[in-house]
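Continuing the batch. This is chain 6 of the set; chains 1 through 5 are on the previous pages. Same settings as before, nothing changed between runs. Recording input and output for traceability.
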Amino acid sequence: MEKNRIRVLQVSPSLGLGGTEKVMQSFAVNLDRKIFHTATYSPANGPRGKLIREQGIETFVGTDLLSVLHKFQPQVVHIHRAGWAEPGSLRPFKLAKTPLLVETNVFGHHDPSPEGELIDRHLFVSNFCAKRYAAVNSIPTVEPKYSVLYNPVDTDFFLDKCPHDREIPADSFGRISRADKGKWSILALDFLPILKEKIKNQQITPFQYRIIGGIPDAEKYVADHNLESLVNFLPPVLTDSEIAEFLNSISFLVHANDTGESFGLVIAEAMAAGLPVITHPSKEMRDNAQLELVDHGETGFVAHNALEFAQYIRFLLTNPKEARKMGENGRAKAAKLFRAQDIAFKLGNIYLDLLKMKKAI
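Output for chain 6:
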């Protein structure tokens, strides 16, 4: 059986807490183990490495990728990267004569280098990224070279841990991100003074804004505006169990990030947990896939400024039945489009089709 399985090496720049690494972990765990023997490689270890090993997946860590390729001899290498040229990074795959090289192009960038030609399939994580890539580079994003594969989300897990009939807090909402300034927008805070005034005028009751991934600027804003009673900064989380526990403590998600999302994993996970999401459009050519996930008035709201954020937050706080309906609409969409096992099945078929096309199996 082992000899017949196709060896797949998932490659990520780190084993940290980011969404890129989480997607790699999900692919490694959910690819059909009767067909594929999957391992992971990263030049640097991190907390996600332990989680991957706990799932019975071998991890290779270190700077000598070529040695790993010679040892594991993968028939498929799947790299997870931003998409732009990284001089020298693909050379080991050429030296090792890797039969099939697949890329998850996380941010939809173009690699015009000769090394970039080694990649057999570029996978975009959203239709937005594929369309922008085609428009900017005048390259049709069609098979066999290009396709869209949404990031996987363990929707079955979130359904189990965040069931339909659970009690949803009526007075709290939240946001979750890495504690990285690049993951923030002032829109994530500017609605607070507006809502504080509504509390003062008894138009709404006090609430709790629960934040994972707070940064010093956000903490200063809260202190400067005397908002400490309304905002609770929480420590980072790693596992889906911890994320589910957080999502069960809020009634909806507020997403605000000036750089936008090439997919929006935290949005998709909130949807999988049955929560509506409030987000905003990005400017110019920045990532905007958050609008591909959130359907205005159906699975949440798209706000354009702090006043609209405040209005939509007030609506969800004061209309719990409508909020729950929107959340369940989002859950259904997430299960249909992002379910991890379904995405992994599609990925496995992409590998098999490409290997057959290259006569590598």
